[in-house]
Amino acid sequence: MWNSTHSWGKEAVFPLPRILKTDMKSYTRRRLLSLVALCAFAACGGDTTGPSNQPPAHLDAVADLSRTATVGTPVTGGIVVKVTDAGGRPVQGATVALAVTLGNGSTSPRLATTDAKGQATATWTLGTIVGPNEVTATVSGVGTTVKFSATGTAGPITNISLSPQAARLLPAADTTRITALSLDAFGNVATPKPTLTPRDPSLISIDAAGLVRALRRGAATYVVAAAGSKVDSILVTVLAAGQSICTGAANPLELGVGQVLTGVSGSGVCVHSTTAGAEYAIVPFYDSGVPSATTQVEVRAQGVVPLPLPVATMIGSQMLRPIAPGLQRDESFESSLRDRERAEIPTRLQSARSWMQSRRNVSPRAAQVAAVPAVGDLLTLNANARDFCANPDLRTGRVAAVTDKAVVVSDTANPPGGFTDAEYRSIGVTFDTLIDPVDRAAFGAATDIDNNGHVILFFTRAVNEATPAGASSVVLGFFYGRDLLPKTALPGPCTGSNVAEMFYLLVPDPTGVVNSNKRSTAQVLTLSNGTVAHEYQHLINASRRMYVNSAGSTQEEKWLDEGLSHTAEELNFFRAAGRSPRANIDASGFSDPRFLTAYSTFEVNNFNRYKSYLARPEVQSPIGSDALDDDLPTRGAIWNFLRYAADHLPAGQEDTFWQALANSKTSGIANLTAALGAPSGPLVRDWAISVFMDDNAANVDPRFQQPSWNLRSALTNGGTSVAFPLSTRTLVDNAVSSTTLGGNGIAFYRFSVPSGQDALLSVTSGNQPVGTTIQVAVVRVR
To answer: Is pLDDT at 668 greater than 50 in this prediction?
Structure first.
C-alpha cells in the first residue's frame, strides 16, 4: 500500500483513494506513459515548432505561383519555398535547386538553403524577352517539384524603330508604307505605338497604319514619329518624272568592270550605269571577332532590273577533271581523334617532356641510334583508334619495305589480294623523295623519339574496320598523338603508345573481307600518298609542339590544324605535277597526264571541300567557331584562304608563313594573327570578295584575286563563269532580300541597272543601321 505522505516528483501530495493493488499498478503505468509522451512532445526535444532533423519529404510554394513583371527586372516577392519532413515539420539546411526552365532569366542563388522555418528564398530576375518565364524548384529526395511562372511585359519606351530608314516614292508610285514601332531597352515592342505626323502635309499624308500617300511631287519632307518622350523621324522623298532615284539620298557611283569599292555606307549607295547589261553585286561581310556569332542583314533595292543571261564559254570537253575520288574521306573520324588528344595529352605532357629531356641529356656515345627494322621482321603495334592509352589492340605487322626515311609495315592479318612488297616499297620511296622533303621544308622536321631516323607507315586492316559496312565515307588513315608519349613515365603513363613516329593506313580489300566493304588496290594506292602527306603535317605539328617548341597549347585548334594538312596535300600536288603556285591554273591542266595523276592523288579532296564551302558562304568561313568546328565547308574555306594568304606574301616568304603557323606557341586565331602580322579580319574579308571576283571580270585589283587557281574554270571543267557553284542572291526591284550571316560570313546580292539610270541600295541589320562589324562593298563584274 502507498503511504499518503509519499510524493512523486512534484506531483501533489493528496490522499489516495482506497483502490486495489492491481489497479494501482495499472494507474502507475499510465502515468509513466503520459510523462514519456509529454517529454517527447515538449521538453525532451520533440517540439513541432522547431526544425526537424529528418530527411525532406515535402516541397511547397510560399510565394505566389503566377505573377507578372517587366522584362529584365526582379519579380516582386521572389522565389520562396518551404521544405518539411514526413510529419510536416520544417527541415533546416535542405538544398533547394532553382532552375530557369522557360525564358532567359536568372535566380540568385541557384542553390538556396532552407532556414530554421524550412524556407528557402531567392531573387528572380526575368529575362529580356517578352512572354512566359518559369523557374522549377526541386529538392533531392522529394519526388514533386514546384513551378513558378511569370509573364514578362515590355519595359518603358527607350527607342523608336522606323523602317525603311528613308522612304522614296518613285514617279510611278503613289503610296508607300512606313513601319514605326516603340521599343523598350531590350528591343521588345512596347506601347503605345508611335504617332506619325508629316512636317509638310501639302506633300504627303500618312495614316495611323503608316500608309504614305503622295499629294504632289518633286520635294521631300520628314515624317516625325513620337511615342512617350521619344521622337525620331524619317525622310520621305516624292520623286517627279525625270528625277534620279537617288535624289536626296546618295551621290551616283560609276564603276568600271572589275572595280571593287569597299567601305561603302550601308545607309544608301547609288550605282549609275552607262552600259546596257552591266552586272553588279552589293556585298555585306560580317567582320565578327566571334566566329560563332550571327546577325541578320537586309538589302533593299530600287531601280534594279533582271540580270542579263550569261554567255556560255567552254574550253573543251576533252579537258575533264575527275568529279570525285573513288573513296570519300571520313573527316569526322579524324576529328574524334583530335578531340581525344586534346582531352588526354595535357595530363601527360609534363612527364612526357621530362622523359624527352632525360633522353637529350644522355651523352652522345650512350645515345646510340636504334636499329632500323629489316624487311621480314615482325613488329607488334597497338592499332586501337578508340581508346587513347588503355586497352591496346595489338596487331602483328611484317616489315614489307625499308627506305631511307620510311619503314613500311603490313598487318599479317590483312585481307588477301593487297599490295605487293614492290608496291609497298614504291610508297616508301614516294615518302623519301616527295612527301618528306615537301612537308619538312614547309613545316619543319618531325621528332625522332625512337631514334631510328624513320617514320612507320602501318598498313593495317584495323583502319578498314573503322568504316561501317556500306558507309558513304571511308577512314583512309590517321595519325594518333598517343604514339608520341612514353609508355611508363609517371604521372600519366601511356601503355598503349607505340613510342614511334607513325601513321595507320587503309589496305586493299578486293573481296570485302572487312565489313563487306570492297577496296580495290588501284583505289587505295591512288589515295595512300595523299593520306600520308596529310597525316605527316599532323605528326610534325604535334611532335614539335610537344617536344621542340614547348608550346603552351599542345594541340592546334582543329580548323587550322586541318587547314595546314590540306595545305600539305596541295604542296605535294604542286611538286608532283611539276607546277608552281601563283600560276592561275585552269581546267586546261587536266589534259596533262602528270597533272591529272597528281591531282587525283593529292588535290581532289581540297576541291570537293571547297565546293561545300561555296554552297554556304553566308554562314561558313575559314575561321572555326571553336576547336570543334572543322566540318567540310570550314576545311574547304581554310585551305583556300591559306593559299590566298600565302599568294599575297612577298615572293620567297611562303615557307616562312607555313613554318610560323606550324611552330607557334599559340593556337587558332592568335596563331593566325601572329603569322599574318596583322588581325585576320580585313584579309578574310578581301579573300571572301575574291571568291566572287577572281577570274569573274577583267581588271580586278590583285587584292581580290586568287593567283594560284582559276577555280571558275578548274571547278567547272572550263565551263561558264556562272556555272561556278557559288551561292549568290539576285535582287528584285522594290523588294527586300534578307539573310543571316555567320561570323566572317559574306553574301553576294547580284543586280543590273539599265543604261543611263541609277539604282539605290541600302543594307540594314534587323531594320536598323548597320554597325561597324558589317562592312559593305559594291563590285562590278560585267
So the answer is: yes
